[in-house]
Design goal:
By secondary structure, the chain is of the alpha+beta class. α2 runs parallel beside α4 and α3 packs across α4. The protein has a six-stranded mixed sheet with strand order 8-9-10-5-11-12, sandwiched between helices. A five-stranded antiparallel sheet has the order 15-14-13-16-22. The chain is elongated, with a radius of gyration of 25 Å. β3 and β4 form a beta hairpin. The chain has nine helices and 22 strands.
Length: 382
């Protein structure tokens, strides 16, 4: 693949998404951040196994994965807190692989806020400007603008202990953006907040990032948070990017069993493709499936999201229809989750809005469940 020139005397390869079906190649002038073939080892443990990634200018990209998947290590490499054993990091076309964090022009927001307890909020926010020798009058104006952007006007003289958790997080965000960073890094910044405040901060940070046009990399293990916040999501597995795409692509069209299982609840049913448009469920019947370029007589995963199967009333039909009985009921408020044992010999879990269910079914109730072939995704089983 041809290399894209991004700096005098430096070049980096075009970065393709690991899921080639939705691969994207970015032009050099579109790239705010590029990570090329980055490897990071800790003894015999390979934390990053050759990561390629390109982030558009003004894009918010989320690194999503379970503990130990490498997302925080990758963020530290981007920030300059870890030096890769192999590969390179480019920021706005400049090779910053061995640059110190202070020389990268990167703003960072941590989960624990990392505010200086002995300094006022205004002084905390001004600290990056002092390190950059910004004149006092200019710094004062920038601090006031930053306080206004995060809705903390009038609270600059307070100390961190005098603010709520959400206000402290806003102050940490103001400190990260006050010097107009080229890149904003957010390391699980809402983990210490309660659910309601976390949801509020997610939307506020997203609006601010879009308003300022900041290139941002966000780390989380929360799938719902990633779907809310992101332009694109990089799902990480064992030090590599398992899939990269928009929230819609990653959620609705996972490319592996790992991604399918990690991106929300689903029914993943083992089956064997017997011919185009048909598969046999392990230990069960044939089902109609969409045609896919996977070849016949091979094992596949039949991915069926909980919302896709529907209860069939009298006279209603679907391309796949199975009678069964309810074996478990879980009330979720606006929705009800049912585990249904199908007479065909396998189980599925469904989640239906309570108002549409016309009252919750009970354990033992009989029903007919159906879905069309387009409701299910086929993925490689191996």
């Amino acid at each position: 693949m041809a290399a894209a020139k991004i700096a005098s005397g430096q070049s980096a390869p075009d970065i393709r998404a690991p899921d080639q079906a939705s691969a994207v190649v970015l032009a050099p002038d579109e790239i705010g951040l590029a990570v090329s073939a980055v490897v990071r080892r800790f003894g015999k443990v390979v934390a990053l196994g050759g990561v390629d990634l390109a982030v558009r200018r003004g894009e918010l990209l989320t690194l999503l994965g379970p503990s130990g998947s490498g997302k925080t290590t990758l963020l530290k490499v981007i920030a300059g807190f870890e030096i890769p054993d192999e590969g390179a990091v480019f920021l706005d076309g400049r090779d910053v692989t061995f640059a110190t964090p202070a020389k990268r022009g990167v703003g960072m927001v941590f989960q624990n806020y990392a505010l200086f307890p002995h300094m006022s909020i205004a002084d905390n926010i001004a600290f990056p400007l002092e390190m950059r020798k910004v004149a006092r009058n200019e710094a004062r104006g920038r601090v006031e603008r930053a306080l206004k952007l995060v809705d903390l006007t009038g609270l600059g003289e307070r100390f961190p202990r005098q603010l709520s958790g959400g206000q402290q997080q806003r102050a940490a965000l103001a400190r990260a953006i006050v010097f107009d960073p080229k890149l904003l890094l957010l390391d699980e910044p809402f983990g210490a907040l309660d659910r309601k405040l976390r949801e509020q901060m997610q939307l506020e940070v997203r609006r601010l990032q879009q308003k300022l046009g900041l290139t941002a990399v966000f780390v989380t293990h929360d799938q719902e948070e990633a779907l809310i916040m992101s332009d694109r999501i990089a799902v990480m597995e064992q030090g590599r990017i398992a899939q990269l795409g928009t929230p819609q692509q990653v959620f609705h069209h996972p490319t592996s069993r790992f991604v399918a299982g990690f991106m929300g609840e689903s029914n993943l049913i083992r089956a064997r493709l017997t011919e185009p448009g048909s598969a046999v469920v392990e230990g069960g019947p044939a089902v109609r499936v969409r045609e896919a370029p996977l070849g016949s007589n091979r094992e596949v995963g039949l991915l069926l999201r909980l919302e896709r199967p529907r209860a069939l009333g009298d006279g209603e039909v679907a391309e796949n229809e199975f009678p069964g009985s309810v074996s478990e009921v879980i009330y979720l408020g606006e929705a009800v989750k049912y585990r249904i044992r199908l007479d065909a010999g396998f189980e599925i879990v469904v989640r239906w809005p309570y108002r549409e269910a016309k009252g919750a079914l009970a354990v033992g109730d009989r029903l007919r469940v159906g879905w069309d072939r387009v409701d299910a995704e086929l993925i490689e089983w191996t």
